[in-house]
Amino acid sequence: MAASPLPPLPSRFTISAPGKTILLGEHAVVYGHQAVAASIGLRTTAQFTRPAAVAAPDGVTAPLVVATMGLEWVIDGARLLDPTCRWEAVWDASQCHASLLASAAATVVTTEQARRAFHAFCTIARLAAAQAVTPPAEAAARLPAGGFSLEYASALPVGAGLGSSAAFNVVTAAVWSRVFGLLSDGEPHHTADSPGARRTWHAADLARINAIALEGERVMHGTPSGLDNTLSTYGGICLYTPQNMRRLPPLTGHAFTLVDTGVPKDTQHQLTLVRERLDRWPGVYQPLLESIHALGLAFEQVFVDDADGKTDPVAFLREAITTNHLLLQALGVSHPSLDALVDLARARGLAAKMTGAGGGGCALIYHAAPPGLSPEEGAAHVAELHAVIRASHPGMTIQQAVVGDIGVCLHDSL
Ligand SMILES: Nc1ncnc2c1ncn2[C@@H]1O[C@H](COP(=O)(O)OP(=O)(O)OP(=O)(O)O)[C@@H](O)[C@H]1O
Ligand SMILES: C[C@@](O)(CCO)CC(=O)[O-]
What we know:
Layout: E1 12-24, E2 35-49, E3 63-68, E4 71-76, H1 77-81, H2 87-93, H3 97-101, H4 111-132, E5 148-154, H5 164-179, E6 187-189, E7 198-200, H6 203-221, H7 227-234, E8 237-241, E9 244-248, E10 256-260, H8 267-280, H9 282-305, H10 313-331, H11 336-347, E11 351-354, E12 362-366, H12 375-392, E13 397-401, E14 409-411
């Protein structure tokens, strides 16, 4: 019996998802400890258009054209979704890597990065197909005839600690879930600057997207905690352990700067580094992870439970962020460029830490000015720090972090 067609899909739609910054707790969270993290206003977007922007070659009914990170993959949709076809064979058959990786457009990524992204893309597509179509072998027959194109754009630096891989995996999971009719139409999301222009999904839809995206993260990083994809899916600010996520109200009155050192790093490598250290010297390194966990618990106490009401949240967060960086440094996952930024901030009475997997990538600076400064003096203090960073590290990128952006969403009007 022929597989039933897909539910009607618009010929064009756009989905986006945010990156994240970790305030406290990276690496320790991989071992079940508590982290505090927030989504940020830098997003990855995918625009779906059908039919595909190429004529279907002979024997291919649903060509898919996927453009991302300066790469373009032309994929046979039937091979992509065929669970008996190894993903490497799909990669080899796609008209991607050989020509494009050698081209100037693709110099931002290595072959390994492109392969990982492709592997995750393939994994996610197959998972969504398996959830929608039984038997999975019939999934390809339900793709739109003529295929489709998917064009990604991202404001997130790749491999810089801001969850670019998670944003890619979450957007991809949402697109494939929509293609296979797994998602509801969601609800309009109203904000002052874009009333109703975006739609967000209900809890069950978000849980589906998050679970599928996690498998993409596993392909890319091996043993992720799930924090990055969870923040990208749900947005906002949360306390996170791999077993539990607790959403928090906005962090009003606390501001942050992100500084990208431009030093490339690899999350999988950083995770392996910590695993090896723990295996070799558990007595030395376990306590560091437990201390990081204690910082996450203290944050909960001060910001959520407000157990004594006497602790100044600003003073606490300044101290916690600094201490977290020192613990991560001792764990061996920082980088001299990150340490230099943290020292610069500390010398001016501010707090800073690496954010994400470390080894390069971004530092997070907390704008809690030294006590006793007026708001204007505080702003001048931060501007002075930015000027010093610009002068001493001209290659670094500095930007104000908008924390708590909404999670994955559908854009009505794009
Ligand atoms: N827009 C994108 N399109 C395709 N793949 C992407 C995209 N953005 C990121 N990736 C994939 O994710 C990898 C980067 O993931 P990595 O975990 O090293 O960095 P990150 O997610 O930016 O940082 P962190 O995990 O520390 O938050 C890239 O090498 C690439 O394979
Ligand atoms: C280093 C890490 O803790 C954060 C990476 O953004 C890894 C993870 O949580 O999966």
